[in-house]
């Protein structure tokens, strides 16, 4: 059974940094594209960043370009989201997502809260 477990959220002041982690288990990590989504209060779920595990190609949403970095540690089956220069509008529940590159099956983590506030 595929599981995604997020960690690293919390409260941070504007301008600060946080690093989210998502550990995948029960599958072959390199077969997936890994994504981070977020959903803020009253907003639709937004795709934040994508990384192709096999090769490392990345893609970012316009609202986070230049501030957030997605990366993986393939030995640990873990995807990270480094978030710098955080703004109050980054406040949201952040979700880890895995999409199998051949068959399209998706899996979701349980979500983790990030609050940017002074």
Structure characterization notes:
The chain is mostly beta strands. Helix content is 0%, strand content 53%. The protein has no helices and 11 strands. The strands form 2 sheets. Strands 2, 4, 5, 6, 9, 10 and 11 form a 7-stranded mixed beta sheet that branches. A 4-stranded antiparallel beta sheet has the order 1-3-8-7, with no helix packed on it. It is globular. The mean pLDDT is 96.
In short:
This protein is mainly beta and 118 residues long. 0% of the residues lie in helices and 53% in strands.
Task: Provide tags for this entry.
single chain, 118 residues, mainly beta, 7-stranded mixed beta sheet, 4-stranded antiparallel beta sheet, 0% helix
Low-confidence sequence ranges: none
Backbone CA Rg? 14 Å
Query: Could you tell me the strand content as a percent range?
Result: over 45%
Structural class estimated from helices and strands = mainly beta
Mean pLDDT: 96
> What is the succession of H and E elements?
EEEEEEEEEEE
Biggest beta sheet summary: 7 strands, mixed
Can you count the beta strands?
Answer: 11
Q: Helicity level, as a percent range?
A: under 10%
Provide a count of the helices: 0
Gap from first CA to last CA: 40 Å
Name the overall outline: globular
